[in-house]
Design goal:
The chain is an alpha/beta fold and about 325 residues long. A six-stranded parallel sheet has the order 3-2-1-4-5-6, sandwiched between helices. The relative contact order is 0.07. The chain contains 14 helices and ten strands. It is about 55% helix and about 15% strand.
């Protein structure tokens, strides 16, 4: 809860405490019933001037003076706190937070991104550009807010190593998780927790130290990515094969930066299963050329038109999100 929210809560508590003191005071000093004492307290604090419920004793009048002075201060503080709560956007943020939580509860087959530091920020941009549904988890609300320049993202402020936070992110319904926290030990904890909650989840983790990769694999990560190694390979490629690097960069920036190399796996009942590649008419229906076909760790690069498609084949193509959607629709057609 932010400062304005805490001030508003304090004001409400002070008001309730003043009401209780007023009721108790009139009951003890004047012997009134609870209803009469409450009525007198309310009209005194509200300064509406309806007059005394019953004639007051001297002690009762002194108590009323003190109650009025205290009540005016409490009400003034409450109005100030309530105004700040609305003006500073806390109320709007609260409504937006509840709306976001409702959207998160509807997620299915999504990605959970844990950590939005330097690495996580670029991952969020990539997922957003390619229209992949995802939810961000980070314990720094300011970092989450800084992602607004990317667009409106679903997010949860909390510790990704905690079961309840991952469950709020619907880990049981997710298809994948990315552990991109700045420390390897934190990523190990995230992987362990996520794997225990969802054994079928595909988990990819960032790894900084080379000694962390086998530990992450034992913890349950399906794949690890060493950011120092990837950076070093990119630097070498810029010198050795600059045209290829330039092509890939252009591809990433083309059409709003949404063109990617993607894969679509053929399900058992797909109408493409059993057909030759030329009979599948993939190019005619989607505008895509199949660059390679993979199954497990075996790949057929530049497959011929006579290649026969089988269940479980992964079609690897270079496409936009719209073309990918058309290919997926074609592949799952039964």
């Amino acid at each position: 809860m932010d400062a304005s929210g805490r001030r508003l809560r304090a004001a409400i508590l002070l008001l309730l405490a003043t009401l209780l003191v007023g009721v108790a005071g009139y009951q003890l000093l004047e012997g009134w019933s609870a209803l009469d004492a409450l009525y007198m307290t309310v009209i005194t604090l509200a300064t509406v001037g309806y007059g005394e419920t019953h004639p007051l004793s001297s002690a009762g009048r002194v108590f009323t003076i003190a109650l009025i002075m205290t009540g005016v201060g409490v009400l003034t503080y409450g109005v100030t706190a309530a105004t700040a709560f609305v003006v500073e956007g806390t109320l709007t943020n609260l409504i937006g937070r509840r709306k976001m939580e409702a959207e998160i509860r509807k997620l299915c087959d999504h990605i959970i991104l844990c950590g939005i530091g330097e690495t996580g920020r670029h991952i969020a941009e990539e997922l957003s550009k390619t229209h992949v549904p995802f939810v961000v988890i980070d314990n720094d609300s300011d970092r989450i807010k800084s992602l607004e320049k990317i667009g409106r993202l679903l997010s949860i402020a909390g510790d990704a190593t905690q079961d309840d936070i991952l469950l709020r992110a619907r880990i049981l319904q997710a298809k994948g998780l990315i552990a991109a926290l700045p420390q390897d030990r934190d990523n190990v904890f995230v992987v362990l927790t996520a794997r225990a909650l969802n054994p079928n989840l595909r988990i990819v983790s960032k790894a900084i130290g080379p000694e962390s990769q086998p530990k992450l694999a034992k913890a349950g990560a399906d794949a690890t990515v060493s950011t120092p190694v990837i950076g070093a390979m990119r630097m070498a490629s810029e010198l050795i094969r600059p045209t290829v690097v330039s092509f890939l960069d252009t591809m990433l920036r083309a059409d709003g930066g949404s063109v990617r190399i993607e894969e679509v796996t053929l399900p058992p009942r797909s109408t493409l299963v059993g057909r030759k590649l030329r009979e599948a008419a993939i190019y005619e229906q989607t505008g895509l050329l199949v660059m390679a076909i993979g199954k497990g760790q075996v790949y057929e690069f530049n497959p011929s038109p006579e290649f026969q498609l089988q269940e479980g084949d992964g079609l690897i193509v270079c496409c936009s999100p719209e073309q990918l959607a058309r290919l997926r629709a074609l592949a799952v057609a039964a």
